[in-house]
């Protein structure tokens, strides 16, 4: 086994080494036990470095840390995009966004012909159920295909009368999942999506009080508690050794790094590096895989471990060979966010992440040497043009044959309101003109502050605080369509119809 890829807990080193030498750790197959159940948990907007098992010093994640002790922790797992819907589409199909065609939240849907994890497991005789925490994964976006039960009911609104978020807290999502488990067969796929760490950060008591100075960490701690509650119920009913548990996230959260308060508009590791933990039959306890892996590898890995039919075509691949010491796999991660272009007519960002380099195609290209600069603080693009050229060629090759990036959905007024209540920018009208995927327009790294003010204005209007929304809009450097529309709404709500009319005229 390659010590470069598997780091061991000191007290388990001899046992894991012995298993490796005798073939007890390895690719699926070779007579190892097969999982009868798969529990897939995605905790939205979860940074890897906010888990104790990933080195967080200020953290409370005992359930996730226990998964790491009892299973495998992938030290560097990379999401393809900092957007909830496209990233979950990649998780469930093994395809990067250019190949499944879902490029943004709210205006794209997965095409019916693309195979999904749930459909494959259903064909293999698994009951399939999903329980979702936010409207952004509503069934209309295509991820319900293959699930016998797809519970996307958002009738339980968070802080009704205050923010009205179209979101279910983690305890309500787990309540629904536990109710389904009471009558579930022994062979199933259960996907549970917990949205809580997503902005705004407002954990329930007692987490609210315990984490008053770090509310994001409080949201993470609450989600972790509910994950523990779910897994305790599964393990109490069925043998643990027959259940494959996968815990991960769709993307992380910037928390102010690189000037971005949240996510969606940059591609730094603060939003792209996510936790990935696997526990189940044939997997070694306490192992750590250091090799970079990708979110698109998750579905192929699950299919291989349960011995279900694989995808005919996928960008991801089974992770089991890494546990057998295969250190030669090329798992270059594709990265993109089209949200800047589709939401704001700014430039899109596309990139590649290798074990050594992060390259971002942008109006001002970015190149980071990850081993010496893990926080991506020193852009070396101008100093290493040959490296930029090589990675840009590789990126162009990855994009060849991609599905057309055309919007397939136009949300109605109610759907738009529910998404905007979560802080998402949902553009009106057709996709902006110009070449999708081609850098051009404002560089998102130059506009993240303005973007946060725009999102804050959305949230304040939803909370019926128009005067505060106007104060945020007054700070924006680039008044445009979205700004003037929000300004007009805010002025209307403050009793200034003439100001609202002027803002409307400016928007035209």
**Sheet having the most strands:** 9 strands, mixed
Share of helical residues: 25-40%
* 3D shape: globular
Low-confidence stretches: 1-30, 156-165, 429-434
Nearest-integer average pLDDT: 84
Distance between the termini: 64 Å
Our count of helices gives: 18
Oligomer classification: single chain
Give the percentage of residues in beta strands: 5-15%
Please state the CA-atom Rg, rounded to the nearest Å. 22 Å
Cross-sheet strand order for the largest sheet: 1-11-3-10-8-2-7-5-6
Number of strand elements? 16
Q: Strand pairing plus helix content: what structural class?
A: alpha/beta
Features:
508 residues; 16 strands; disordered N terminus; alpha/beta; 34% helix; 9-stranded mixed beta sheet
What's this model, at a glance?
This protein has 18 helices and 16 strands.
Would you kindly provide a written description of the structure presented here, covering whatever features stand out?
This protein is α/β, with parallel strands linked by helices and 508 residues long. It has 18 helices and 16 strands. The chain has helices at residues 13-21, 62-70, 84-93, 97-100, 117-123, 170-181, 207-210, 215-237, 269-272, 298-306, 320-323, 339-344, 385-399, 413-421, 448-462, 466-474, 481-493, 497-507; strands at 6-8, 37-43, 72-74, 77-78, 127-131, 149-151, 188-194, 243-248, 273-274, 276-279, 287-289, 293-294, 333-337, 349-353, 357-361, 366-369. The strands form 3 sheets. It has a 9-stranded mixed beta sheet, with helices on both faces. A hairpin with a 3-residue loop joins strand 14 (349-353) and strand 15. The longest helix is centred in the middle third of the chain and has 23 residues, at 215-237. Mean pLDDT is 84; it is low at 1-30, 156-165 and 429-434.
